Amino acid sequence: MKLLDMTRKYGNATYNYPFEPYKVPEGFRGKPAYDYEKCIGCTACAVACPSNAINVKLNEDKSKLVWEFNCARCIFCGRCDEVCPTNAVLLSDEFEMAVRFDKDNLKERGELDVECCQKCKNPFTTSKLISYDIERLKKAGWDEATLAEKTKYIRTCPECKKNIAVENSTQYFVRKRK
Amino acid sequence: MSKTYVVPEEIASANSLEAKLEHLKNIKGSFNVYRVDCGSCNGCEIEIFAAITPMWDPERFGFKLVASPRHADILLCSGPVTRQMYYPLLRAYEATPDPKVVVAIGACGSSGGIFHDAYSVWGGIDKIIPVDVYIPGCPPHPATIIHGLATALGILDQKLELKEHKNGSNESPEIKTSVFNNILFERDVLAEAKQLMGYLYGRKLFDKYIKAVKESPNIKDTVQTKITMERLSREEEDPRYRECMKVIHNNVYLNHIKQFKEIDIADRIDLSD
Ligand code: SF4
Ligand code: SF4
Ligand code: SF4
């Protein structure tokens, strides 16, 4: 009886959760929510993810870059959230994550178009990343002329860029020796 | 590692989907759970025990932890299955009366989680025995555990589904215009804010700071900006933001102003008041 009195005084502490919604506290780290429209495929999140829950890879025929998130492996550390330059992945409030029978339901995929190198025609980044770069350079105060001049190589892959640089410099050496 | 355990014929036939669903229907009001710790870091165990405190009180729908797998209807397995726990897990699995429901809890239980590629683990309960319900989380919140058990019992529906996104546009996402007409300023402010307060509060600090800087009558005038910044940081209630806004002013803003004109020591905000 005494206990009952006490409960009456302090009220009921039990959350009525499965029967009514539960509100998570502020700053709760729930399932990372992916915004496909914003993702530019920069792979920063895949590099940062400590448990490889996010993988960004070319698909088999190398025609698309596939961003894949596997919630079963995620440890909710928030590093993807921290590094994403466009806030395309943000930890959400979602905590109801259990799935029955099929683990594939925990996955999320996004396909992005790849950009092929002007020179060697191999895919090296996404088209969206390049338009994002150019957009940012514009916002950084570059005018059209500088932009055209400086972004000449932006559609060339790092490997070809290296080769071009080496070719140019050796040319210079050869000429000098003559 | 290859799979070595093959579920014996009699267990497999007694555990068909129909039998399980029938069994779940029968035990809806009262079910016994046996917890198998397969080398977890104990984070998941703590959350399971948090989930059975009066705060969450799962006995409302009949959840009960039992001490022996022979009394159990549901096996709640946590951890990435270390080599040492391989046989104990099998013993618990075989000792549980049929039909049994296996729930893998935590990132480790579902797929190996952070330990998925370690040399001494199998990487998930489902590498060894068939799993029915997966509860991701590291560790899962008590509400997630209760949702998982309620999903197992069919009280609640699962919320997640395989999501595929395709054929998006190649347009760049929107980029906000800069207060200085140079986004490098915003980039540096954000980097400094994250360094000062972490990614979550850093973002809030960034918003507060940019809002404050926009209120300055002339952004390139250091004296006016300093006065505005001092006024606004005084109005800020949280002392962390108050101090960090001043630090950003001193470290980032003044650094940026340097490219337009000379700055002197009087432009810095004194952090001590
Ligand atoms: S929260 Fe952590 S573990 Fe989960 S996807 Fe992001 S970086 Fe990976
Ligand atoms: S960091 Fe962000 S933009 Fe880059 S691939 Fe990941 S989600 Fe996409
Ligand atoms: S999922 Fe996380 S909390 Fe649970 S056992 Fe694994 S590492 Fe520990």
End-to-end gap of chain A: 106 Å
Average pLDDT reading of chain B: 83
Regions with little confidence, pLDDT below 50 for 5+ residues of chain B = none
Percentage of residues in strands of chain A: 15-25%
Relevant terms:
heterodimer; A: 178 residues; alpha+beta; Alpha-Beta Plaits; 4-stranded antiparallel sheet; 6 helices; 7 strands; 33% helix; elongated; B: 273 residues; alpha/beta; Rossmann fold; 2 domains; 5-stranded parallel sheet; 9 helices; 10% strand; binds iron/sulfur cluster
Produce the secondary structure layout.
The complex is a heterodimer of chains A (178) and B (273).
Chain A: H1 2-10, E1 32-34, H2 44-48, E2 54-58, E3 64-70, H3 79-83, E4 89-91, E5 99-100, E6 107-116, E7 123-126, H4 127-139, H5 144-150, H6 158-177
Antiparallel strand pairs in A: 1-4, 2-3, 3-6, 6-7
Chain B: H1 9-14, H2 17-26, E1 31-37, H3 43-51, E2 63-65, E3 74-78, H4 86-95, E4 101-105, H5 106-111, E5 133-135, H6 142-153, E6 163-165, H7 183-215, H8 222-235, H9 239-257
Parallel strand pairs in B: 1-2, 1-3, 3-4, 4-5
Helix pairs in contact in B: 3-6, 7-9, 8-9
Detailed description of the structure:
The complex is a heterodimer of chains A (178) and B (273). Chain A has helices at 2-10, 44-48, 79-83, 127-139, 144-150, 158-177; strands at residues 32-34, 54-58, 64-70, 89-91, 99-100, 107-116, 123-126. Chain A is an alpha+beta fold. Chain A has one domain (26-177): Alpha-Beta Plaits (2-Layer Sandwich). In chain A, strand 6 (107-116) and strand 7 (123-126) form a beta hairpin. The radius of gyration of chain A is 25 Å and the shape is elongated. Chain B folds into 2 domains: 9-152, Rossmann fold, CATH 3.40.50; 183-267, no CATH class. Chain B has helices at 9-14, 17-26, 43-51, 86-95, 106-111, 142-153, 183-215, 222-235, 239-257, and strands at residues 31-37, 63-65, 74-78, 101-105, 133-135, 163-165. In chain B, strands 2-1-3-4-5 form a 5-stranded parallel β-sheet, with helices on both faces. In chain B, helix 3 packs across helix 6 and helix 7 (183-215) packs across helix 9. The chains are: A alpha+beta (178), B alpha/beta (273). Strand 5 (99-100) of chain A pairs antiparallel with strand 5 (133-135) of chain B. Residues 39-45, 56, 67, 83-84, 86, 88-89 of chain A line the site of one iron/sulfur cluster.
